[in-house]
Each structure stands twice: as structure tokens, then as C-alpha cells.
User: Fold this.
Amino acid sequence: MYSVCAFIAVSYAALWLCDVWPHADYWLTYTGTAKLVILHWVVCMLVVSFYLAVNTPPGFVPRGWVPPTATQKQLDAAKEEARKGKRFIVASAVRYCLTCGTYKPPRAYHCSNCSACVLRLDHHCQWINNCVGYANYKYFLLFIFYAAIGCAWLFCMHIAAFYTLIVHGNGFGTPTDAVGFLRIILHIVDTVILIAITIGLVSLCVWQMSILFENVTTVEHREKNYLKKENKDAVWKYDIGKMENISSVMGHSYIEWFVPTPPPKGTGMEYKTRDTHEPTLASDGLKCSHIKIEIDSDDDYDSQVQKTV
Ligand SMILES: [Zn+2]
Ligand SMILES: [Zn+2]
Assistant:
């Protein structure tokens, strides 16, 4: 988390010292000022979304929660599956967490970092030192979205400044004086860091958007792949149409999608499905009753996902 803060501070300093200051004449034109305003909007959204993603709890399963519609037989079977350390994707209509000693609502998984079951768990993110779950998923998405735009933009500006230096010899003011030398050092350091971070952020952003369009979390993506392997015609139960998938996380108006306003109201315990378009407590996300696939227990499963994110 602190490394993200430090990176934002260094990049913002590099923007003013290396790009804006040496070319003040350009930035004072209408075009230059408009670009600077848009860039600061991006930075502002990035910082606010980051703050909210870090400080908003992801939403935890209340201790002692029991699915209200489950039968005693289902509750006992869920405990037995948890003890065995295995569960069946389709058969696990009711799931139990041995660590928390509670049943899990649909789309909730145990996070070993937080030592709790998290609602609509996506993954535990080291960058924000928090779980990404039901309540802060929108803030996390906006954070990586604006971070990817900001980094890509700044990277292009740095490359343009290098080009000006090489071609015209004056990209950093007077490179031979002390200030010019410090600008070059800051510029090179920030550009090298930006190459790796921009590639990582843009890839992560594209990946997160693709699973948002399908209403799948990073954790659930693996389950969906298992299902598709068995039956390519199978459909994901929570995929209720691209627009509604996005709206269910980002909000119901286009403006809300791009600003860190609170996500749509809900409990995080029930979700609309393809069949009913009504919230449901059924927890098997897969609409394909004849397939029974055995996978690892949730605890192992979550930690495997966390290693890859
Ligand atoms: Zn748990
Ligand atoms: Zn966590």
C-alpha cells in the first residue's frame, strides 16, 4: 500500500518537474491547460478510489449465518464436505467454512489473509492491503482503471520528452545544468518504473473488465472454466446480460460507472440469476445439473488464486 502511495508521489513530482515546468508555454495554451485539467481529474479519481478501496471493508459473512432455506440434510452434508476438504461445484448448494465455523452465502469464499469469509470475494490484494469483495469491488476497479490511464498517459509524455531531448536537445531545459541533470535522472527512473507498472495495470484492467462483463469474480473464473471444459454449452448462472452485469457492480447510470460513488444497495448475500432475475440464495453458480466436478476445498482454492493475482 505504501509503495503505491510512494509511486503516485514520485510520478506526480516527475510530471511537474520534467514535463510541465520545462514546457510552461505549451501548458498555458488552451489545449495544454485542457489536457492538464483532464490529467488532474484522472489523478483525483485515482487517489479517491484508492483511498476508498483501502479503507472500505469488503463485506464479511456474519458469524453463525445459516442459509434460511436449507434443509438439515443439506447443512449436515455441507459440513461433511468441508471436513473432507473437497466439494462438488454443482452439488455444493450449501457450503460450510470450517475456519469460521459458519455457512457461506453464494459467491462468498474464505480469505486466509483476512481469516474470514468474504462476500463476493474477488481476491486479496497486496497493493491495497485489503480484500477485494462485495463492498469495495467498484472502488478497486475504478482505481486500476484510472491508474492504467494515468500511467499510460504519463509514460507517453515521458517518451515524448526524451524524443524532444534527442532530436532538439532541449527536452529538459538545459541538460548541462544541475536542475536539468536532476530532471533527466528523475525522468529515467520514473520511465523505467512506468514501463513495468503500465503493462501490469493495463493487463489487469483488461482482465478485470472482461470478467465484470460476464459477472464472474477471479475466484469463480476457475469454476467456470471447469464447467466449460465439461460442457461448452453450459452458461454461468449470474451472467444476466452485459449491461446488467456492469450495473450490478458499478451503479445504474453511466456517470456512476466512472466516479467512486457507493455501489448499488444490496446485502451481498443474494444475487440475481439468469432464470429468475431475482435475488436468490442458491449457491451453485452453474446452471448445469448433470455435471458433478470435484475440486479442492475453498481454503486451498482461495490461496491458489491469491498466488496468481
Ligand atoms: Zn471462513
Ligand atoms: Zn483478504
Q: What stands out?
A: The pocket of zinc ion (ligand 1) is lined by residues 97, 99-100, 110, 116-117 (CB under 6 Å).
